[in-house]
Structure formats: structure tokens, C-alpha cells
Specification:
The longest helix has 22 residues. By secondary structure, the chain is α+β, with helices and mostly antiparallel strands. The strands form 3 sheets. A 5-stranded mixed β-sheet has the order 5-6-1-7-8. A 5-stranded mixed β-sheet has the order 11-10-12-9-13. The radius of gyration is 21 Å and the shape is globular. The chain contains 14 helices and 13 strands. The C terminus is likely disordered. Helix 4 runs antiparallel to helix 5 and helix 10 crosses helix 11. Strand 5 and strand 6 form a beta hairpin.
Amino acid sequence: MESPPRKIIHIDMDAFYASVEQRDAPELRGKPIAVGGGGPRGVVATASYEARVFGVKSAMPGARARRLCPDLLFVKPRFEAYRAVSAQVREIFARFTDIIQPLSLDEAYLDVTTDKLGMSSATMIAEEIRRMIREETGLTASAGVSYNKLIAKLASDQNKPDGICVVRPGEGADFMAKMPVRRIHGVGPVTAQRMHVLGIETGADLRARDLPFLQQHFGSAAPFYYRAARGEDDRPVHERQERKSVSVEDTFVDDLLTEEALVAEIDRIAKSLWSRIEKSGAYGRTVVLKIKFADFRIITRSKSMGAPVRSAELLAETGRALLVAQLPLRMGARLLGLGVHNLDQEEGAEAGQQLSFPL
């Protein structure tokens, strides 16, 4: 007998860091603000919706953000405040289910197939969670409700800010058909560009390609894309697992060989990684460099510290040192990655097992 569909909710706080700052400082309300650094080496952690209309985004260099929005106000991050609010929100989640998979301080999956309060309706639970978050924290959250994780996460972004989107069993394929492939979680910018070249722009375009075609062009990732286009995803919601590492990597259209290009890229990756580290509170003691060469050979190099890396400058400096020690490269690099391992368990045990973020 086939099991009934699961009931999955994805909750995503709206412009979380920026919203906390605007809540706590009334003079910032209604103004374009960016949490992060506005200096030459700074990076935007989160931008308010007033700033986003100018094109300001997370992980964007602060200098570029200021050019896009000259009136942008930069606010220094207060991660203790964000962690405190995140704990409040997770306590609300726990009133409804114990099957919670946090992805960062501001978002999580919940499996409410069987909920503690016997409400049975995942939509009602999501609305109640959003109401409690608003009343108890003064902040807003958006929710996606569906029968699997892939669609729930995409749905939570559909009606932001302060919105909800419900995709019921039987509606998933149509929902995915209209979705730009670049928005599908698991399709990075490089893959999206490859799909564009192949004439694949939407989920409907992706569904029109058979599995052998996708395997020819995307290798081991093909089955995931094939099933995603049909609204299928059987990954369970994992309860609070211990995260082992956080990393960011980028694959290049043209292989990089010169020291200038390689160092510039590792600096860019380090900025993005630091944004992820601060967002998740996952500080690690070991910095790991990954290089994939033009012939697909992969090497990794690492350096361990006596204490967790807690500054963007130290992270970037260590990444550059690991890279420069490998120069000159024997051939071009098609991919660079940087990560932190050996996480401080008190702060890094909040979410999924091992996270890698393609740029």
C-alpha cells in the first residue's frame, strides 16, 4: 500500500538580519540598509527590501552595493541578537513537530505529516507559525507548503515578503513547469548557463528532455534534474544533525591559470564563504582549499588553527596562502573551492550534515 504524501513546510524569515536591525532601531525603518561591511573588502550579509529594489543582494561586495544605492546605510552585524531571535523561532517550530531541519539561522524545513497538536492541515500549521512569529518576535516570515522539500523551498520564495504558497499533491509538475531552471535549488549559475545553451529555460523545457539526454550533458546530476522537473523529491527532513563543514566553490567557463586571476577568485569565494559562516554561526578551525584541474584531477590542501576562524580577513589570508603555495599550476583550474571544517560544535551543530554552496 502506497504511503500518503508527506506534509512539508519551509519557513524563511524575511530579510532576517536587516529586519532585526529595523525592528530594534526605529530610525532605520523604511530605509535601504545592508547588514555587513561597506568598505573595500566588505560584503553584504543581508539587505532590506528597500535596498533590494536597487539590486543590492546578499554576498555582494559592499562597494558595489553602495554604487547601486548611494543612500544605502550599512549596519554592523549583531550575530548574538540574530541567534537569540532564531532560537525563539525554533522554539515555535518545536510546538508543532520534532522533525525540524534548520538550514541556517533564518530558514528551516519542518515535517508536519504527524503534528503534535493534531491540526492535520499543513497550511493551517504554517499560518499559525507565521502568526506566532509575528506576535512573539515582531518579524515576518514566508512559508512554502508542499509534499516534498524541493517544492516547499521554492514555494516559500513565491510570495515574499510575509506570504505563503501552497502546492498540493498533483500540482507539483505544473508548478515546476513554470519555474525558471535558474531558481531550482541544485541548479547553480554555471549549470543554468549550460541549460540555456541547450534551450532549457523552464521546468517544462527540462521535463521535455529524456534521461539519456540529461545524462549526456549533466552526468550524475541528471536523475535529480529529471525528477525535479516532474515535481519529485523523496529526500526526508533530517532532524537536527551535526554540520561537519561549510564550503563555497565555483566552476569557471574558462580555466584559470594566472596568479592574478586565481587570487582574485579565491578572494571572491572567501567573501561569499564568510557570509555563509556568519549566517549559520558555523565557525571552523580548519580551512580547506579545493582545486579541480582542466583534466578533472582534484587536489585539496588545508591548514588547521588553534581556534575557530572568526574574521573574514584571516579566512581570506589563509585561503590565499594555501593557493599561492600551489603556484604555478601545472594546468588551468576549472574549479576553486574554499571551506571550513572541524566546526565549533556549540555553534555549528544547528543544521544539515555538510553544506556546499556553488556560487
